[in-house]
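Provenance

Sequences were taken from public entries as deposited. Structures were produced by running a predictor on each sequence independently, with no templates supplied. The record for RNA helicase from Cannabis sativa is shown for reference.
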Amino acid sequence: MAATLSVSATQLLSLPRPVFLSRKLHVHAYGFPFPSRSPSSRLVISENRAICSAPELLNSTSMAEEVGLDETVTLRDLCGNHVPDHVLRRVEEVGYVIPTDVQRQALPTLFSGLDCVLHAQTGSGKTLTYLLLIFSVINTQRSAVQALIVVPTRELGMQVTKVARTLAAKPTESDLEQNSCTIMALLDGGSLKRHKTWLKAEPPTIVVATIGSLCQMLEKRILTLESMQVLVIDEVDFMFNSSKEVSSLRKLLTSYSSINNRQTIFASASIPQHRRFVHDCIQQKWTKSNVVHVHVNPVEPMPSCLHHRFVICSKNMRLHALLSLLQTDAPESGIIFVGEQSEKSKKAGNAPPTTLLMDFLTASYKGDSDILLLEEDMNFNLRATSLSELRQGGGYLLVSTDLAARGVDLPETTHIYNFDLPRTVTNYLHRAGRTGRKPFSDEKCFVTNILTSEERFVLQRYENELMFNCEELLI
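Predicted structure for RNA helicase:
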């Protein structure tokens, strides 16, 4: 096997000629078996190293060479002449001046036109990263859908839409030559009739969509993707592991659009077996063969400001243990995660665990925070109301299933309580990632797990896989 070369991301950008590496052989696809073949050459960038095996990639980093990848670079420096000035001004007005690690490492690659897998901690700035790319390529003079962002939940879609509309706010008088950028939220629970009318009258520039609503429009040919330049799949691992969505997602990637006509970005904080996934992106033709894997903080999957704790008690004492923790911590803003109700419990006519917990806290907890609920079975209006109330300011305790664990951005959250231990290490990562979401902040945040003694070994496995230490609390 040929020798490999490892260099830092900064060193990579100044290499005078391409460096060829050996190819890796993977046995099967990410959830879908196929004949064993070696992947095409590709570039992998991580915080500690960048490995290159495609000659054209080094030629596509001239913009990164100009700005460098040091810590003094601003977002404006990184975006250079790629992003319109009025968008950059909006970015700065809302407080984004210094790039996060993922923005510093990924933007030069994205602006070069390469497909990319953005793999970075929760709250690391992936959304802004791909939105800056989108604003760099769209042409507001054209009346066509030029960018599509696919999300797994309505809540994440609303959040992404809000950020995109903030950046695309109507230009000031000095920017009259700039047409406004229209953004449609095509989300489950929305009015498809109203969206049909809009799409027929004048297609939006950017569409943020859940896969179900999107495919309805595509199948009826109300929405077409012939002019799409950028396709983003957010929380990609979650969507590929959902049996309800995976067939529609694969159809979107291979039938409704072509990898040759678009730039494809996959984003998530967790991509299990990520090397295999990147390989599959190439083999299944979800991306071009020179796709780049930007893996930020691979040695530290979660923010360093998180402090992990656990309490051991019997099942019938969990409510009292939670109450004691809340009284001791007095969190201004926190999320309490509860497991989904089992089908057996539903058939028996039992109340959902979220309802039981809400009733208990309403009766017993005397803190100042508002107690709110977010779960899958709520109708979309109630779910939207809960999130709206959370974002209006003031303290809150949100009781939620894993619906809130993916992508929901509540930067004021300082405490996470796992009333039920998450079923997988990936779910733990995403639940914990709902706190510690203020970039460059050293504020200490807490993730507390309420366990039975039998569950301790599960938490230990999560500690080993995610490389964190959990402190036991005695209450």
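Residues 154-167 form the longest helix (14 residues).
Residues 372 and 386 are 6 Å apart (CA to CA).
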